[in-house]
Amino acid sequence: MTLRIGIAGISGRMGRLLSEEVAAAGATLAGGTGRNDDAEALFAGSDAVIDFTNAATAEAHAALAARHGRPLILGSSGLSSTQEAAVAEAARSVPVVYAANFSPGVALLFAMAERMAAVLPPEQYDAEIVEMHHRQKVDAPSGTAIGLGRAVARGRGRTLEEVGMESGRDGHTGPRATGPIGFAALRGGQVVGEHTLLFAAGSEHIALTHRSFDRRVYATGAVRAALWAAKQPPGLYDMKHVLGMG
Ligand SMILES: NC(=O)C1=CN([C@@H]2O[C@H](COP(=O)(O)OP(=O)(O)OC[C@H]3O[C@@H](n4cnc5c(N)ncnc54)[C@H](OP(=O)(O)O)[C@@H]3O)[C@@H](O)[C@H]2O)C=CC1
Ligand SMILES: O=C(O)C1=N[C@H](C(=O)O)C[C@H](O)C1
Questions:
Q1: How is domain 104-212 classified at the CATH fold level?
Q2: Is there a smaller number of Cβ atoms within 10 Å at the N or the C end of the chain?
Q3: Does domain 4-102+215-242 have CATH number 2.40.100.10?
Q4: So what's the ipTM on this one?
Q5: Rounded Cα distance, 236 and 233, in Å
């Protein structure tokens, strides 16, 4: 029997592509919801649910996934620490794949960022993250930019909260502090998603850039994650686990 996958946010930019990718993967589209639909019924009638909606809805859907015993694939970004704690709580009873970015390229970028940060001393190499997205995006910095920041902090043996984030520089900011990671967010046009991590030192710069040209790459990754998650024990996973890198 094929896996029945439900899609929360089915009419959105990602939701429409996800419907196509579910069919392309040979799975069954169990149904989909928008803002005014019955999420309870979606979870009851699906073997796994993919959510690309928004932060508040993602939190509610994490609780529904746990209540119905359904794997959850979570792509929504902009979650607060409290909302992320609710996702982690759900992952105690069901598999949850929570990825800031479902493209394989970004999974590799995170791994490389962590390794580079482990080698380049923060006293000499300032880490700066620049991202650009389409004008409809509502959260900043992007989930992927925050994920990159977390990877850099991890490479430096700390958390992002410990090293600190410097974003929205404007006016008389004073010299750059040593340690915090800088973030800049650009918005405009129809840019699907671009991220650059820059390590800047006195005598050299090294930059890693990822560009998505088609958001289908995220949809393919999310469906792959759903098929994978359906066979996993409860736990909090991300794309590196799905790709066998974790
Ligand atoms: N992790 C990843 O790889 C990626 C993550 N994203 C993230 O996914 C999210 C969605 O992105 P995108 O598709 O571009 O955004 P859209 O705004 O195009 O789509 C979101 C959809 O969710 C719907 N929605 C809102 N509230 C609910 C609800 N309570 N129940 C069900 N559906 C609801 C919206 O409906 P309505 O229009 O009625 O409000 C809308 O159709 C964002 O957080 C984005 O950052 C995006 C791309 C890749
Ligand atoms: O909103 C988007 O479009 C995207 N959101 C994700 C993010 O916040 O990182 C992933 C990708 O960059 C596209």
A1: Dihydrodipicolinate Reductase; domain 2 (3.30.360)
A2: N
A3: no
A4: 0.99
A5: 10
